[in-house]
Amino acid sequence: MPPNTTHSPPPYSLHRAAPADLPAILALLQSLSEQHIAYDPGRWTLSPSLPEAYRYWLENNHDESDVFCLLAQSSSGQPLGYVLAQAMPEDAKYFTAAHVYIHDIYLAPAARGTGLAADLLTRVRTWGTARGLRSFRALIATPNAQSLAFFAKHGFRPTATEVSQEWR
User: Per residue, what are the HEC states of 46-58?
Assistant: First the structure.
Protein backbone atom coordinates (compact mmCIF):
# COMPACT_ATOMS: atom_id res chain seq x y z
CA MET A 1 0.00 0.00 0.00
CA PRO A 2 1.48 3.40 -0.95
CA PRO A 3 2.18 5.84 1.88
CA ASN A 4 -0.39 8.49 2.61
CA THR A 5 0.93 11.62 0.91
CA THR A 6 -1.97 13.87 1.74
CA HIS A 7 -1.21 16.53 4.28
CA SER A 8 -3.79 18.19 6.40
CA PRO A 9 -3.51 21.96 6.66
CA PRO A 10 -1.91 23.31 9.81
CA PRO A 11 -4.30 24.06 12.68
CA TYR A 12 -3.63 27.78 12.28
CA SER A 13 -3.48 30.56 9.74
CA LEU A 14 -0.74 33.17 9.41
CA HIS A 15 -0.93 36.72 8.19
CA ARG A 16 1.30 39.75 8.16
CA ALA A 17 0.27 41.62 11.28
CA ALA A 18 -1.30 45.05 10.92
CA PRO A 19 -2.14 47.80 13.43
CA ALA A 20 -5.59 46.23 13.91
CA ASP A 21 -3.79 43.15 15.31
CA LEU A 22 -2.14 45.15 18.10
CA PRO A 23 -4.57 44.00 20.85
CA ALA A 24 -3.97 40.33 20.00
CA ILE A 25 -0.20 40.78 19.92
CA LEU A 26 -0.21 42.80 23.15
CA ALA A 27 -2.17 40.04 24.89
CA LEU A 28 0.47 37.50 23.83
CA LEU A 29 3.25 39.95 24.70
CA GLN A 30 1.77 40.36 28.19
CA SER A 31 2.20 36.62 28.75
CA LEU A 32 5.73 36.72 27.36
CA SER A 33 6.60 39.67 29.59
CA GLU A 34 5.17 38.00 32.69
CA GLN A 35 7.27 34.92 31.93
CA HIS A 36 10.44 37.01 31.70
CA ILE A 37 9.65 39.04 34.81
CA ALA A 38 9.16 35.77 36.71
CA TYR A 39 12.65 34.70 35.58
CA ASP A 40 14.32 37.85 36.88
CA PRO A 41 12.29 40.91 37.92
CA GLY A 42 15.47 42.97 38.26
CA ARG A 43 16.40 42.46 34.60
CA TRP A 44 13.05 42.31 32.82
CA THR A 45 10.38 44.98 33.10
CA LEU A 46 7.15 45.82 31.36
CA SER A 47 7.53 49.35 30.05
CA PRO A 48 4.43 51.51 29.63
CA SER A 49 5.85 52.56 26.22
CA LEU A 50 5.84 48.98 24.90
CA PRO A 51 2.43 49.26 23.16
CA GLU A 52 3.66 52.30 21.21
CA ALA A 53 6.81 50.47 20.12
CA TYR A 54 4.75 47.57 18.84
CA ARG A 55 2.26 49.91 17.18
CA TYR A 56 5.18 51.52 15.32
CA TRP A 57 6.45 48.12 14.19
CA LEU A 58 3.00 47.03 13.01
CA GLU A 59 2.44 50.31 11.14
CA ASN A 60 5.74 49.65 9.36
CA ASN A 61 5.17 45.94 8.72
CA HIS A 62 5.03 45.87 4.92
CA ASP A 63 7.09 44.45 2.08
CA GLU A 64 9.43 47.44 1.76
CA SER A 65 10.20 47.82 5.46
CA ASP A 66 12.86 46.34 7.72
CA VAL A 67 10.15 44.90 10.02
CA PHE A 68 8.55 41.47 9.70
CA CYS A 69 5.71 40.43 12.00
CA LEU A 70 3.35 37.50 11.53
CA LEU A 71 0.35 36.65 13.68
CA ALA A 72 -0.95 33.08 13.92
CA GLN A 73 -4.60 32.49 14.65
CA SER A 74 -6.83 29.47 15.10
CA SER A 75 -9.70 28.83 12.72
CA SER A 76 -11.93 30.66 15.24
CA GLY A 77 -9.64 33.72 15.20
CA GLN A 78 -7.98 33.06 18.57
CA PRO A 79 -4.40 34.42 18.63
CA LEU A 80 -1.95 31.52 18.93
CA GLY A 81 1.40 33.20 18.54
CA TYR A 82 3.50 35.70 16.67
CA VAL A 83 6.98 36.46 15.47
CA LEU A 84 8.55 39.91 15.29
CA ALA A 85 11.87 40.34 13.50
CA GLN A 86 13.81 43.25 12.13
CA ALA A 87 16.59 43.65 9.57
CA MET A 88 19.46 45.34 11.37
CA PRO A 89 22.35 47.15 9.69
CA GLU A 90 26.01 46.57 10.39
CA ASP A 91 27.06 48.15 13.69
CA ALA A 92 30.82 48.48 14.01
CA LYS A 93 30.75 49.51 17.67
CA TYR A 94 29.23 46.12 18.55
CA PHE A 95 31.32 44.13 16.01
CA THR A 96 28.07 43.20 14.31
CA ALA A 97 27.44 42.50 10.65
CA ALA A 98 24.02 43.16 9.12
CA HIS A 99 21.57 40.55 10.41
CA VAL A 100 17.99 39.70 11.23
CA TYR A 101 17.20 40.26 14.88
CA ILE A 102 14.32 38.15 16.13
CA HIS A 103 12.71 40.29 18.81
CA ASP A 104 10.05 37.72 19.73
CA ILE A 105 8.74 34.32 18.86
CA TYR A 106 5.98 33.58 21.30
CA LEU A 107 3.26 30.93 21.31
CA ALA A 108 0.25 30.58 23.56
CA PRO A 109 0.58 27.36 25.58
CA ALA A 110 -2.10 25.63 23.48
CA ALA A 111 -0.05 26.17 20.31
CA ARG A 112 3.20 24.71 21.60
CA GLY A 113 4.29 21.45 20.04
CA THR A 114 2.24 22.03 16.87
CA GLY A 115 5.13 23.04 14.58
CA LEU A 116 4.02 26.66 14.62
CA ALA A 117 7.28 28.01 16.08
CA ALA A 118 9.32 26.20 13.42
CA ASP A 119 6.99 27.55 10.74
CA LEU A 120 7.41 31.11 12.06
CA LEU A 121 11.20 30.73 12.16
CA THR A 122 11.26 29.35 8.60
CA ARG A 123 9.27 32.33 7.39
CA VAL A 124 11.64 34.75 9.15
CA ARG A 125 14.58 33.01 7.48
CA THR A 126 12.89 33.23 4.09
CA TRP A 127 12.14 36.93 4.63
CA GLY A 128 15.69 37.69 5.77
CA THR A 129 17.48 35.76 3.06
CA ALA A 130 15.32 37.49 0.43
CA ARG A 131 16.95 40.70 1.72
CA GLY A 132 20.44 39.21 1.41
CA LEU A 133 20.84 38.58 5.14
CA ARG A 134 22.29 35.27 6.28
CA SER A 135 22.81 35.93 9.99
CA PHE A 136 19.95 35.58 12.48
CA ARG A 137 20.07 36.51 16.17
CA ALA A 138 17.85 36.50 19.22
CA LEU A 139 18.20 37.30 22.92
CA ILE A 140 16.83 34.53 25.12
CA ALA A 141 16.42 34.63 28.88
CA THR A 142 18.92 32.20 30.41
CA PRO A 143 16.25 30.27 32.40
CA ASN A 144 14.13 29.74 29.26
CA ALA A 145 15.36 26.21 28.58
CA GLN A 146 12.52 25.45 26.16
CA SER A 147 13.38 28.41 23.93
CA LEU A 148 17.12 27.73 24.13
CA ALA A 149 16.49 24.12 23.07
CA PHE A 150 14.23 25.24 20.21
CA PHE A 151 16.84 27.60 18.79
CA ALA A 152 19.63 25.03 19.23
CA LYS A 153 17.52 22.44 17.39
CA HIS A 154 17.27 24.93 14.51
CA GLY A 155 21.01 25.55 14.27
CA PHE A 156 21.50 28.55 16.54
CA ARG A 157 24.46 28.62 18.91
CA PRO A 158 25.26 30.74 21.98
CA THR A 159 27.48 33.67 21.01
CA ALA A 160 27.45 36.00 24.01
CA THR A 161 26.45 36.13 27.64
CA GLU A 162 24.72 39.15 29.10
CA VAL A 163 25.49 39.97 32.70
CA SER A 164 23.32 42.27 34.80
CA GLN A 165 23.46 44.01 38.13
CA GLU A 166 20.92 46.23 39.83
CA TRP A 167 22.96 48.70 41.85
CA ARG A 168 21.31 49.53 45.14
Answer: CCCCHHHHHHHHH
